């Protein structure tokens, strides 16, 4: 079986700051073999970068959309980005 390493950048819009969004995403990440980061942006959005095997990243992003966070997300915009070099674990960045 061939495992393809991918990375995605997702911008979440809605009521995604001040509601524990980043901490919930970090908790969800512990259930998946993904690396990356999540952070608040000055414009009120949250940016997520996640990398790993395609199946894991896809399942992780789906889990976020099906979690208690779904009610806070008005829109999400997904971009393909190059694999995350040197990333270890999943972190909240500032």
Architecture overview:
There is one protein chain. The chain is an alpha+beta fold and 94 residues long. The chain is built from two helices and five strands; from the N terminus they run βαββαββ. The protein has helices spanning 21-29, 54-66, and strands at 5-14, 34-40, 46-53, 73-81, 90-92. The chain has a five-stranded mixed β-sheet. It starts with a strand and ends with a strand. The model has no long low-confidence stretch (mean pLDDT 95).
Write a short abstract of this structure.
By secondary structure, the chain is α+β, with helices and mostly antiparallel strands. It has helices at residues 21-29, 54-66; strands at 5-14, 34-40, 46-53, 73-81, 90-92. 29% of the residues are buried.
Report the count of strand segments: 5
Largest sheet: 5 strands, mixed
Mean pLDDT: 95
Radius of gyration, CA atoms, in whole angstroms: 12 Å
In the sheet with the most strands, the strands line up as 4-1-3-2-5
| Spatial shape | globular
Provide the β-strand percentage band.
35-45%
**Low-pLDDT segments, ≥5 res:** none
Order of helical and strand elements: EHEEHEE
Secondary structure tally, helices: 2
Terminus-to-terminus distance: 37 Å
Give the helix/strand class. Answer: alpha+beta
């Amino acid at each position: 079986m061939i495992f393809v390493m991918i990375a995605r950048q997702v911008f979440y819009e809605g009521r995604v700051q001040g509601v524990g969004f980043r901490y919930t995403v970090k908790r969800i990440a512990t259930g998946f073999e993904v690396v990356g980061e999540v952070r608040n942006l000055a414009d009120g959005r949250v940016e997520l970068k996640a990398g790993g095997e395609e199946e894991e990243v896809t399942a992780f992003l789906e889990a976020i959309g099906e979690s208690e966070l779904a009610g806070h997300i008005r829109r999400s915009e997904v971009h393909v980005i190059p694999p995350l070099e040197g990333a270890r674990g999943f972190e909240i960045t500032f």
